[in-house]
Every structure is written in structure tokens, then in C-alpha cells.
């Protein structure tokens, strides 16, 4: 009989692949199971570092470099927060010496961690000015899959132009007031973006007016044909269609320079359709006649309602997602037009306020005007998210918060929608207090989400059947496909394992 001690062991690399899938805390706990797993779990724990407080980065560098052959070489992900680069010294000269010492240690760590795959580096321009050897260490990294360089200016761009990695995800956050056109020209020709699939640009602004020679010419710019997804934060109007000719997904953060986004100054070419577009209402007129498969809207007041309607009708999205903060009559009119015979809208996603009475009854004003609007539509899927209008009271009253998340209110809403909209095949209802992350693209309520499949019988009665969230996500994935865009129907789609 084979005993536990005689049982064959998994290869150490196989164990590492398994342990690397769990959280760092779980990996630490696994390290106590046995001596063999301890060695593997230790590698997994040391493969990720995310210093966020002053002093943490110093300790990480010292510990990793104490035995670089068995520690720094295990590091795969290093995400440095800006606060980790602050040092607790009152005297400026002492702080300067300590910061330079830290940067030297960090340069040594990067030199030793040649298997690094993920790097987030803030205050890069300042760090390079204090210690140029840091740039040499960054240049030697060859295996990065994802890199985020923050507070970038001329020195950082020069280092980035010499980096040997070809990551699939690249972030450039430029230092404010330093985003000169020359840096953008360098960015457009950067070898670092040779194999990039997703690019994030932060605080990139080009002068709209200026002296002769200050304006960029498209002929001065290179192109990055591998890029499919671009995310923009605090950016002005940029020649994105030229720089990334094969772009499919464009996300605008809701903080942008709205004066730049007018049809007179910037327009997206109608010959470049988009799979995903996240934009504000005031930007839509720049996308007139551009086919968009999935349109996610930030709510901002649109002064030209006629122009907004014209843009939406010409874009003809298949999915429309927005957060409702008033203006119900405006949205009712817009949806009536978009759901007409000429429209392609088949998937509607709305996040709106709700409230609860003292007895715990749910009040959802959205339903009163939405159901008559969509009753005779061709929608096949509706996703409704509700957040309480007084989020603080929800946290103060956990019993009501729990009641809001239970299935009964969501089920009632799903049954109402299914009964009024004969074309529907799937419904999703999410009930949760609002939490807004300013760096998220889609203001969705993700927690407390429940999916239903809609059934009908010969007598015209309709019912809903609960399906898993995973099955619901598969439905959404298919509705975002080119096959669904061609058919605008779920005919032939088979949902298995629901």
C-alpha cells in the first residue's frame, strides 16, 4: 500500500501555476500545509508586490535584494503607488538623500527582476532626474506584458523609446502642462507599442491654436496597427483614428476637455466603425454616422437635443447603456425614436435610482415611464440596475439593504418587464447601493445581479426562469458579436449549461 510520503509529488512548476491563481493571503496559508508546498507558495507570495505606504518599498527592495538569486528573480508583478515614494523626513536634504538611495535600490531590484511581467511606476520623470540608472534598469526589462508609466515627460519618453519589452497593455500618464506635441510624435513611433493590444493615455492635450509650426501634421505621426482598444483620461481631441488605424474599442473617461469635442474641431471618420464606444452626450455629435455596436454613455447635459437625437439615430447602436439622473421625458423621446423600425437597438441597459419605504417596499419610478416606451420594441434583452437614492441610509440600515438585494423585488420587476415586452428573451436586474469608481468606464451595478430567461406559451402568457450569471454573461457576449450584429436576432443561439 502506497503511503502519503511515498505518493508521487507534482512538479514544482505545476504547483506554482496552481498556487499563483489564488490570492496572496491564501498562498500564505497554503505555505503552512507542508514543507514542499511552502517552497512553492513562498514563490507565489514573493511574485507580487504592491507597495502603497511610505516605507514599504524600502523594505521590499531590501528583502528582495538580500538574496537576489532566490527572491528578486521570482518577482512577476510590481505595482508601485505614488504614496510609497513619499519619505518621512522633515529635512529636505535628508529626504533627498533617502529618496536617491531608494531609487538606487529600486534600480537594482529591476535589474535583478528580469522575469517581471507587470509594472506600474509613478513619478517617473522625477525619479529619472534624480537617478539616471533607473532608466537603464527599465530599458533592460524584456518580458513585460503590462506596463504603466505615470507622470511622463521628456526624460521618461526617451527611456520608453529604448525599452526592449513589447507589452500587450501600455499606459502613459503624462505630467500636467508638459504634454507637448513632440512627445506625442515620439509616442506615435514608439517601439514599446509594437505589439500592444490596449493603450491608455492620460492627460494628453495638443494645442488647438498656436504659432506657425506648432500644429501637428498627420504625416509626422507613426501608426500602431496592433492596437484594438484605447482608453482616454483627461485628454483633448487627438488624431486617434490615424494613430491606431485598427481600433475597435474607444473609452472616454467622463472628465475631458469638452470644448475640443465639437464637429467643427474633431470628428470620427464614418469609415471606421467601433465595436465599443464609451462617451459623453456632448461628444456624440463627433461620431455622427459612425456605426457602433455597443454604446455606453456618461451622463452630461446635452444642450442641443435635436443634434443628440440625430447623432444617436445615425450611430444606430445595438446596445445602449446609460445612467438615468433625471431628464426622463428626454430619454423617453430618444428611446421611442431609436426603437423605431429603422433602429438596430436590441439590448438596453439602464441604471437608475430607487427608494424604499419604511415598510421596506421598493419604489422604482423608472418602470412607470419605461415600460410603455419599450412595450412594442424589438428588444431581446433588458438589463436594469437600481441603486438606492440614499446610499448612506442603506449602510445604516443593514436589514433594508439585505431586503433590497433579495430576489423578490428583482423577480417582480422581471415579471413586469416580461409581461409588457413580447420580444424579450432575457432580462437582468441588479439591486445594490451605488458605488462609483471614477476610473470605471461603465457605470454598472454589478453586485446583486440576477438573470432570467423569458418563456411564452400558445396562450400568450409569459414567464421567467432564473439562469446563472455566467449564462447571462454568455448571452451578452454573443449579443456583442459580429454574428448577432448581422442577424439582430437570437435565432439559432443555443444557451447551454444555464
Q: What's the structural blueprint in terms of helices and strands?
A:
Blueprint: H1 12-19, H2 24-30, H3 35-46, E1 48-49, H4 56-66, E2 77-79, H5 92-112, E3 118-121, H6 124-130, H7 133-140, E4 146-152, H8 154-160, E5 169-174, H9 181-188, E6 198-202, E7 229-233, H10 240-243, E8 249-252, E9 274-280, E10 292-298, H11 305-315, E11 319-323, H12 328-338, E12 347-356, E13 362-363, H13 365-374, E14 381-388, H14 391-396, H15 398-405, H16 407-420, E15 426-431, E16 449-456, E17 462-467, H17 469-479, H18 482-487
Parallel strand pairs: 1-2, 2-3, 3-4, 4-5, 5-6, 6-7, 7-8, 8-9, 9-10, 10-11, 11-12, 12-14, 14-15
Antiparallel strand pairs: 12-13, 15-16, 16-17
Number of domains: 3
Helical coverage, percent range: 25-40%
**Shape assignment:** globular
Which regions are unreliable across 5 or more consecutive residues at pLDDT < 50?
1-7, 391-406, 435-441
End-to-end separation in angstroms reads 43 Å
* CA radius of gyration: 27 Å
Mean pLDDT: 82
Structural class: alpha/beta
Main beta-sheet strand count, sense and barrel state:
17 strands, mixed
Secondary structure tally, helices? 18
Instruction: Provide the β-strand percentage band.
Output: 15-25%
Number of strands: 17
Amino acid at each position: 500500500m502506497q503511503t502519503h510520503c511515498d505518493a508521487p509529488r507534482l512538479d514544482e512548476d505545476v504547483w506554482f501555476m496552481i498556487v499563483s491563481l489564488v490570492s496572496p493571503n491564501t498562498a500564505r496559508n497554503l505555505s503552512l500545509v507542508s514543507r514542499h508546498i511552502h517552497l512553492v507558495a513562498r514563490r507565489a507570495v514573493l511574485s507580487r508586490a504592491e507597495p502603497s505606504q511610505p516605507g514599504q518599498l524600502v523594505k521590499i527592495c531590501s528583502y528582495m535584494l538580500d538574496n537576489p538569486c532566490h527572491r528578486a528573480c521570482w518577482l512577476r508583478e510590481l505595482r508601485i503607488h505614488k504614496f510609497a515614494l513619499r519619505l518621512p523626513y522633515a529635512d529636505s536634504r535628508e529626504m533627498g538623500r533617502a529618496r536617491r538611495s531608494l531609487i538606487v535600490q529600486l534600480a537594482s531590484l529591476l535589474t535583478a527582476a528580469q522575469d517581471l511581467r507587470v509594472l506600474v511606476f509613478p513619478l517617473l520623470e522625477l525619479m529619472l532626474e534624480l537617478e539616471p540608472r533607473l532608466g537603464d534598469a527599465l530599458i533592460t526589462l524584456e518580458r513585460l506584458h503590462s506596463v504603466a508609466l505615470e507622470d511622463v515627460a521628456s526624460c521618461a519618453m526617451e527611456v520608453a523609446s529604448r525599452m526592449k519589452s513589447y507589452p500587450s497593455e501600455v499606459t502613459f500618464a503624462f505630467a500636467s502642462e508638459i504634454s507637448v506635441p513632440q512627445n506625442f510624435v515620439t509616442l506615435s513611433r514608439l517601439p514599446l507599442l509594437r505589439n500592444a493590444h490596449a493603450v491608455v493615455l492620460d492627460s494628453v492635450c495638443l494645442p488647438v491654436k498656436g504659432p506657425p509650426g506648432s500644429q501637428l501634421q498627420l504625416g509626422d505621426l507613426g501608426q500602431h496597427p496592433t492596437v484594438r482598444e484605447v482608453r482616454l483620461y483627461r485628454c483633448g481631441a487627438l488624431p486617434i483614428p490615424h494613430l491606431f488605424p485598427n481600433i475597435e474599442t474607444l473609452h472616454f473617461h467622463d472628465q475631458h476637455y469638452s470644448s475640443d469635442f465639437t464637429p467643427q474641431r474633431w470628428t470620427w471618420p464614418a469609415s471606421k466603425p467601433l465595436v465599443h464606444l464609451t462617451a459623453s452626450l456632448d461628444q456624440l455629435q463627433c461620431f455622427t454616422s459612425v456605426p457602433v455596436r455597443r454604446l455606453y454613455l456618461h451622463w452630461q447635459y446635452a444642450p442641443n437635443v435635436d443634434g443628440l437625437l440625430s447623432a444617436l439615430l445615425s450611430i444606430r447602436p445595438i446596445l445602449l447603456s446609460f445612467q438615468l439622473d433625471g431628464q426622463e421625458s428626454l430619454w423617453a423621446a430618444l428611446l421611442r425614436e431609436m426603437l423605431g423600425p429603422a433602429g438596430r437597438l436590441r439590448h438596453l441597459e439602464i441604471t437608475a435610482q430607487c427608494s424604499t419605504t419604511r415598510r421596506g417596499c421598493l419604489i422604482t419610478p423608472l418602470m412607470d415611464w419605461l415600460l410603455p416606451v419599450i412595450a412594442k420594441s424589438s428588444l431581446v434583452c433588458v438589463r436594469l440596475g437600481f441603486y438606492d437614492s440614499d446610499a448612506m441610509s442603506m449602510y445604516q440600515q443593514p436589514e433594508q439593504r439585505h431586503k433590497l438585494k433579495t430576489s423578490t423585488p428583482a423577480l417582480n420587476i422581471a415579471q413586469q418587464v416580461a409581461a409588457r415586452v413580447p420580444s424579450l428573451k432575457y432580462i437582468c436586474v441588479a439591486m445594490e447601493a451605488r458605488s462609483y469608481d471614477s476610473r470605471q468606464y461603465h457605470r454598472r451595478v454589478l453586485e446583486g445581479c440576477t438573470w432570467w430567461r423569458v418563456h411564452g406559451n400558445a396562450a400568450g402568457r409569459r414567464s421567467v426562469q432564473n439562469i446563472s450569471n455566467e449564462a447571462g454573461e454568455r448571452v451578452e457576449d454573443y449579443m456583442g458579436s459580429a454574428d448577432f450584429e448581422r442577424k439582430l436576432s437570437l435565432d439559432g443561439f443555443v444557451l447551454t449549461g444555464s
